[in-house]
Amino acid sequence: MAGPSTAERGERQKLESGPPRPPLVGRLRRLRRLIILLFALVLAGAAAVWILYGSPWFRTERVSVSGTRVLTAAQVREAAGVPVGSPLVSVDTDAIEARLLKELPRIDSVEVVRSWPHGIGLNVTERTPVLIIGKGAKFVEVDAGGVRFATVPDAPKGVPVLELAVPRSGAPSRFPADRLVREAVRIAGDIPARVARDTRTVKVRSYDAVSLELSGGRTVEWGSAEKGPAKARTLLALMKADSGARHFDVSAPTAPASSGS
Question: Which one of 47, 76, 216, 231 has the fewest beta carbons within 10 angstroms of its own beta carbon?
Fold first, then answer.
């Protein structure tokens, strides 16, 4: 049997060797284009870094403050310590937030934002006192979380005074003072708005013996902080039903009582 012809052997060799390789010049051309592209990317990256960090176009020039009520903008700026003149992109916003919360306990939260191309914004939320505690001739403000955040010379208007009247003699109390303060804060948050405006003192004798002293010599026996919303509704109904009463007891909201003297 005759072997493959010369033409057949040539075709077989072409198939085995694959498609013809591109000439060397073409490969060099593509390599040169790749090098140029990489070089352009490096230059673009270097230019971007210089624009953000080295140019005068994106420097920190101003610090704006919003949301303050008691604090001044100057106090917030000073405590923030924003590095004016530094590249805006390099300002550590987390560090600024941490400094503000540490230096100004009146601040409950703060949002530090970059305002391109030259500003830093400090959006402050201050704590709101729900109770105050007498401390000599001054007052300590307590917020809704039970945090004692500031000492002020004058009592804030419309904020009840917390009076801890826990007996000092005999066996120690089951609940520490901080726990009693937190319970009083819970109660202050449940007092109906109509009654809260007239509340002068929240008096704590024990965990389950808390009373309110209102304007006009009226009092409310509240009891513990449990079932606060139910006690609030009961108190409003009781005051409406017996508007001339001076003493109200909602410590057991299902069995309230009131009296005129």
Answer: 216
- Cα 213 to Cα 41: distance, rounded to the nearest angstrom: 74
Phi, psi of 18 (to 5 degrees): 80, -175
User: For residue 201, what are the β-bridge partners?
Assistant: 161, 213
Secondary-structure class of domain 131-259 per CATH: alpha beta
Distance CA 121, CA 100 (A): 13
Domain boundaries, the chain: 62-126, 131-259
For the residues of 28-55, what is the DSSP string, one character each?
HHHHHHHHHHHHHHHHHHHHHHIIIIIS
Which residue is listed with tokens 């941490």?
98
What letter does residue 22 receive in the DSSP assignment? P
Please check whether residue 210 is in contact with residue 201, taking contact to mean a CB–CB distance below 8 angstroms.
no
The model's pTM: 0.74
What tokens were used for 83? 């590095």
CB atoms within 10 A of CB 196: 18
C-alpha 114/C-alpha 198 separation (Å) is 44
* 46 phi/psi in degrees, rounded to 5: -65, -40
Q: Which pair of structure tokens corresponds to residue 69? A: 């009520």
Question: Is the link from the previous residue into 117 a cis peptide, with omega within 30 of 0?
Answer: yes
Cα separation, 213 vs 199, whole angstroms: 6
CA distance 76 to 91: 17
| Mean pLDDT per 10-residue interval, the chain, length 261 residues | 56 56 72 80 68 69 95 96 90 96 97 92 96 94 94 94 76 73 94 94 94 96 96 96 94 94 63
* Residue showing tokens 């010599």: 217
What CATH code is assigned to 62-126?
Answer: 3.10.20.310
